[in-house]
Amino acid sequence: MKKKILLVGFSTALISPLASADNQFQIFTHFDAEIYTEAQPVQAFVDDFDAPLKSGDSAFTYNIFEVGVGYGNFKVGLQSRYDYVLNFDPDTALYTHTEKNDLAFEDRFYTYYLDAKQATSNGVFVSYDFKFLDKSALTITPKLSIFASSHFQDATVNGQIYSDEIEGAVTVDYNFSRDILFKEFTPSDRPDGLGYSLDIFADWQVNDELQVGLSVKDLLYNTDYDDSGSVKGQTTEIPFSEDDNGDIVTQPTVSLQTSAYGNTQSHDLEMEMRLQAFADYRINERFSTQLTIKRYDQDTFNQVKGRVHFWDHWKVQAGYETKSEAFLVGIENEYFGLNLQTDSLDLDKAYYANVNWYMNIKF
Fold this sequence. Notes:
The protein is mainly beta. 8% of the residues lie in helices and 62% in strands.
């Protein structure tokens, strides 16, 4: 199956430049998978958290696959996406790394803070290109997606934990389709979720050499889940108390409201919007360059890349991105593109990876 997909992709890329660019009807597909982790490489972050610890307070992955048709300025298609974003306190990463690797704890309170959102969804999308200015130099494209979802996590855990002992106070606000934190309160039936997202894209051909653009993904994002699992409340450990015999004991206080015994509830999941702006400058017929700035929640990535243009439609490109420290290589034309970006070819050492490809057949 993979060989067939690759064969169709490369065959399309070779023959599609012969088609007229003025043709109105098109079939297209697009895939983008991006993952970034701090504190640990991707593999260790997902598995055992056992690599040497680095400073960091965030991790995310955004993955989307789309296939659709277009006519003129109008596009419609099917969409599947998986989103995960995590913010944490560096002290929490240190505590987790110490615990998982059986290292010595410091005799102090560790800050324990996690803010995580995760969702898998499938649905449809529609977009329309609005053209403005002379020669349609400015294009503004709103894109609306409607999707269903039955798998999500939305959790905030905030508090303090003392050393390796069960002392401290932790507040929990946790909603889910499957309980991966306490492993006890997963609903008997998966929750039903219906959601939407709105993206805005703008592209302006300032002159023959300069093009600028802006994308705002998830400007609006909301999914309403019915019958979701939940755990809300706090746990407190009183470290020293005395019983009637004069013995020193600890007595934990737990005050949690859960979805046990069918006590499920509705929940609205929201995602943070993602911003990306670029400026593309055509130096001459053979060379061009582009500067891109991405803002995902609290992380900013700056990327610069250069291109070499050949034949009538093709370009190869290479670039570098700050913060992720990732290198990019790719090849593109109007009908086919493939870009790969990572900070290490050794997946056990990579903190960032991005795979992006598209195909576009015009008739």
